[in-house]
Amino acid sequence: MYTQALNTSGSASRLEVRSDEDPERMARFQARIDAEDRIEANDWMPEAYRRTLIRQISQHAHSEIVGQLPEGRWLTRAPSLRRKAALLAKVQDECGHGLYLYAAAETLGISREDLTEQLLSGRAKYSSIFNYPALTWADIGAIGWLVDGAAIMNQIPLCRCSYGPYARAMVRVCKEESFHQRQGYEIMLTLCRGTPEQKAMAQDALNRWWWPAMMMFGPPDSQSQHSDTSMAWKIKRFTNDELRQRFVDAMVPQARILGIEVPDLDLAWDEATQHFSFGVIDWEEFRQVLAGNGPCNRERLTDRNEAHADGAWVREAALAHAEKRRARKIAA
Amino acid sequence: MTEQRTPLWEVFIRSRNGLAHKHAGSVHAADAEMALQAARDVYTRRGEGLSLWVVPSDAITASDPADKGMLFEPTSSKIYRHPTFYKVPDDVGHM
Ligand SMILES: [Fe+2]
Ligand SMILES: [Fe+2]
């Protein structure tokens, strides 16, 4: 998902529970989790729980921040004032989501400056989806519908995450997401009911965004690491494949209402399972995008770095101003 | 990072008149005025509040979770602090 890089190969060792953790405390901790108790910032927690959460919440935050970039380019190109106001509000929300999440990560003992540095240096991951370009206005529709739709699937169970500050941030985020998905779907619907050219644009956007959206849930359960510990600690409540299935089941009927085709020849209703079965995902593409070789990885990081550098003088001036006022107050 | 750190503030929102301010989250800002501005942008985009407080995070003293038992458990045995502990005949009516 927004934290899909957590369970790709190569990072397994970091999640292993340390053997020098006091077994009695570990047992008490697990008992609290099992009893659906929430863990709060100052409570004792295993180091691996803390580390997993810092990585998960910060990857999630970075995704919200970088996620502003593909849509941001369309703010000045929106086709009407109504669309522009909506998109502006949505992009602003994504920034807010990033900030709620950074604040939640900071309760675990990492500073905002360190988190920012991890993103800007390229050490931290963010969701693969934001390394694809938004080429036409229909992409803004497809992003709201599919990408925010996938985000909602993942984020609703996170509202019950065992870590209190993360769960509370997710409650706020989820309240705001449904507007994002609906405005995207409305754009798609308008295009699909417009001229043949507009409908073709919507189909083209669905063709390009469908598979990357499917990858948002991360590697298949058979290849994903960490899932067991995360499930036992109730950081995660459903597996990648379970969430992906829910997504397909929800999206296919919505595509039918739009009158456009999901680009998957293997897509079919399965009477036996009462779910849609679907084709094979190109996991090599997924690995390449996560490894930094997607269509826009370099552009995204460059843009974030430039924006951060451009704001340096503002941060400096604000701190200098605050310091000057403080000094004056003391003198008076 | 050699950049100076921007202070952390806790944000409290009064959602409606008559209700107490409730913790909403935190923001980073150089001073109180900017913290209020940031809190407004981050936490009240949909009419969530009528009043905001920002408090420097390091000004808050919190109880230690390890003291939870010592601080809060004794009250659970003091059931005589609750009205239901006292028996009043039914014909007294509501009291
Ligand atoms: Fe978001
Ligand atoms: Fe969103």
Please count the helical segments of chain B: 2
Number of helices of chain A: 13
- Principal-axes shape call of chain A: globular
CATH architectural label of the domain at 8-62 in chain B: Roll
Overall outline of chain B: elongated
Pattern of helices and strands of chain A: HHHHHHHHHHEEHHH
Strand order of the largest sheet of chain B: 2-1-3
- Give the oligomeric state of the chains in this entry, treating copies of one chain as homo and distinct chains as hetero: heterodimer
CATH superfamily of the domain at 8-62 in chain B: Phenylacetic acid degradation B
Radius of gyration of chain B: 21 Å
Structural features, described:
The complex is a heterodimer of chains A (332) and B (95). In chain A, 64% of the residues lie in helices and 2% in strands. Chain A is mostly helical and 332 residues long. Chain A has a two-stranded antiparallel ribbon with strand order 1-2. In chain A, strand 1 and strand 2 (275-277) form a beta hairpin. In chain A, helix 4 (81-106) packs antiparallel against helix 7 (164-192) and helix 6 (137-158) packs antiparallel against helix 7. Chain A starts with 22 loop residues before the first helix and ends with a helix. Chain B has 95 residues and is α+β, with helices and mostly antiparallel strands. Chain B has helices at residues 32-43, 68-72; strands spanning 8-14, 22-28, 51-56. Chain B has a three-stranded antiparallel beta sheet with strand order 2-1-3. In chain B, strand 1 (8-14) and strand 2 form a beta hairpin. Chain B is elongated, with a radius of gyration of 21 Å. In chain B, 20% of the residues are buried. The model of chain B has no long low-confidence stretch (mean pLDDT 90). The A-B interface holds A 40, 42-44, 89, 92-93, 96, 99-100, 103, 106, 111-114, 116-117, 169, 172, 176, 312, 315-316, 318-319, 321-322, 325-326 and B 1, 3-6, 8, 25-31, 34, 41-42, 45-46, 62, 64-66. One fe (ii) ion binds at residues 94, 148, 151, 177, 180 of chain A.
